[in-house]
Amino acid sequence: MFALSRQEIALVLVTMLWGSTFLIIHIAMQHSGPLFFVGVRFTIAGLMALLMFRKRMAAITRLEVGAGIAIGCALFLGYFLQTYGLQTITSSQSAFITAMYVPIVPLLQWAVLKKPPGLMSWVGVTLAFIGLVLLAGPQAGPPSFSAGEAATLAGAAAIAAEIILIAYFARKVDSRRVTFVQLLTAGLVSFALMPVMGEAVPEFSWLWAGAAIGLGLASPSSS
Fold first, then answer.
1. In the 3-class helix/strand/coil scheme, how is the chain assigned residue by residue?
2. HSE (side-chain half, CA atoms, 13 Å) at 71
3. What are 99-107's contacts with CB under 8 Å, separation 24+?
4. pTM
5. Best CA proximity match to 168, nearest among 121, 117, 108
6. What is the pLDDT of residues 41-76, one digit of tens each?
7. Of 64, 74, 62, which is closest to residue 165 (Cα–Cα)?
8. How many CB atoms are closer than 10 A to CB 201?
9. Dmax over Cα atoms in the chain, in whole Å?
10. Which residues, including other chains, have CB under 8 Å from residue 103's CB and lie 6 or more apart?
11. pLDDT digit string, tens, across residues 102-144
């Protein structure tokens, strides 16, 4: 009889939680703009990280601040575009397109770090692209993505860039201090862009508040 190990069960539960966030955000976007929601979510996450890692903050370095800001900007862009897309596309579409960051990572590594993908990476990229085209719609001719789908795909590329930045700095910095900086950067950049993008603070709703607070509290432990 097939049985899962504790580690495999944990991975299944994490995957289920990750998948549920798309539906949660999709519902929250009916009551909040994307910039405000991302700002609340990651500012709370940053403050939680500060609380969790406060004993290590005194030794923070310039490199860690710079790394955190760079990663945080990529984090902001990825999640803002994903959240923006969830205003107009379904949570299942968003989850599939966001997962495109997996095959995008080796392509960006090739472009930036000059590390060409292996055979299986190319197979994964090809299959992911075919799936994306099928998901976009049955129209004949070249694939035509909606604004929400295009924004989500761009967000997936930003998340891939975030992963590459994390890998680049991983051996040079304390991950806990960088986690604090990157989360707070994502939140503050989002708030700062609200007047530039013309997004107003929404009326209070427990739907967006509960979603943003809950995801914010969960973010430090999953970063």
1. CCCCCHHHHHHHHHHHHHHHHHHHHHHHCCCCCHHHHHHHHHHHHHHHHHHHCHHHHHHCCHHHHHHHHHHHHHHHHHHHHHHHHCCCCCHHHHHHHHCCHHHHHHHHHHHHHCCCCCHHHHHHHHHHHHHHHHHHCCCCCCCCCCHHHHHHHHHHHHHHHHHHHHHHHCCCCCHHHHHHHHHHHHHHHHHHHHHHHCCCCCCCCHHHHHHHHHHHHHHHHHC
2. 26
3. 99/128, 99/156, 100/128, 100/132, 100/153, 100/156, 101/156, 101/157, 101/159, 101/160, 101/163, 102/128, 103/128, 103/129, 104/156, 104/157, 104/160, 105/160, 105/163, 105/164, 107/160
4. 0.85
5. 108
6. 999 999 999 999 999 999 999 999 999 999 999 999
7. 74
8. 13
9. 59
10. 121, 124, 125, 128, 129
11. 888 888 888 877 778 777 777 877 887 777 666 655 543 444 5
Residue type, 75: L
For the record, the structure tokens of 8 come out as 């495999």
Q: Which residue has the tokens 């990229």?
A: 125
What token pair was written down for 52? 């969790």
105 with 189: CB under 8 angstroms?
no
Length of the chain: 223
